[in-house]
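[09:14] KT: can someone run the structure on this one? pasting the chain below
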Amino acid sequence: MRCADIFLAFPYVLFVVAMIAVIGRGLQNVFIAIGILGWPSIARVFRSAILTVKENDYVDAARAMGASDARIVMRHIFPNSVASIVVYATMNIGGAILTESALSFLGMGVIPPTPSWGSMIQDGQQYLLTAPWMMIMPGLAILSTVLAFTLLGDGLRDALDVKMKDA
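[09:31] RB: done, structure tokens below
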């Protein structure tokens, strides 16, 4: 977790911009940069979920019945922890879309003619007064997609959260 703390100590977008400057532009490099710099937050959430599940009574009961550590992890801890990771990852997709759009808007993302909403907004910027829809439509596409993934993550949280089903 110390390595994750080091990654989290730097501003995310600034770190992604610096990494793109080092490894170069392109769709694959943007995915690599976002993936490499996005793991610490998921690792922290997963660790937190595991530590929470590990303290439940059914884990103690399995240990008392003589279950091996591997069986406890595979049958009890991992299945009850994975739901929080799925929800968190789904909600982080919106952040990845926003990061890619920001990089493309700044000219550090995908290389044209590969389409990107950020580069579409940048291209439409010069026509703001005469044809504002050239900026508004890609912006609305970003907004609706990020909102859709956030709502999907919220719905998954409601569906997968055991504590909310009991209430």
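[09:33] KT: thanks! The CA atoms of residues 159 and 165 lie 8 Å apart.
[09:34] RB: yep, looked fine to me
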